[in-house]
Amino acid sequence: MYVLYATRGSGNCFKPFLTLCQLSISFSVLEVDVLKGETRGDAFRRINPAGAVPYLMTTQGVGLGESNAMLWLIADGSSLMPQTALERAKSLQWMFFEQSKLEPHISPARFLGHIAPHLGKGREADIAAWREKARAGLATLDAHLAGNAFMLGDRYGITDIALYGYVHVGDEAGIAMQDFPSVCSWMERVREQPGYVPLSELCSTAKPFAAGHAA
Ligand SMILES: N[C@@H](CCC(=O)N[C@@H](CS)C(=O)NCC(=O)O)C(=O)O
């Protein structure tokens, strides 16, 4: 059974979580508390030397980092996978876009402006700059989704999950999401997919990582 190391509220951790749920795959979640610094502690680094979540442990005991890579493993052979060589290449194109034009801007603006605002004091200029960069990425995404129901056309899949992870919490990063109407319609369509569960469920049945691991 898969074990997903995750932190509460994380869009990156939500991606493999949602994929596992939608494919009805058995897994458990161990909650690693970023705010308490557990990702940087020795106990967690013995599991993932990169000190980041999500981290996925396979049934065979092989660890895998990077949220979007996890989607390719978890969904392999399922209806959520891109089907043709061109679709696979397009999927990777949008996943790299997500990791360079969206996630690095939405995530810190949300973390310092919404999740841990006490840490954002004095960082207002940085937060404003991240919001502007995120808006530029969202404009590109909006133009794409104006002509496509889902990221690769007509069919929902892992590319949508990869993009949705952080885009759907853009409002918590202080971004006026109504400025991107095609993105908003697409988010509605994603929420209508079978087996959809909200981000608030991510750690609802999780066991705390710290309880089972010496520091
Ligand atoms: N590119 C990575 C990003 C992973 C990442 O930045 N994770 C954050 C939480 S969302 C983290 O573990 N931060 C821990 C820390 O900074 O100590 C992915 O997509 O999985």
UniProtKB/TrEMBL annotation:
The keyword Iron-sulfur does not apply. Keywords: Transferase. Gene3D superfamilies: 1.20.1050.10, Glutaredoxin. PANTHER family: GLUTATHIONE S-TRANSFERASE-RELATED (PTHR44051), HYPOTHETICAL GLUTATHIONE S-TRANSFERASE LIKE PROTEIN (PTHR44051:SF2). Residues 84-209 form the GST C-terminal domain. GO terms for molecular function: transferase activity. This is Glutathione S-transferase family protein. Pfam families: GST_C, GST_N_3. Residues 1-82 form the GST N-terminal domain.
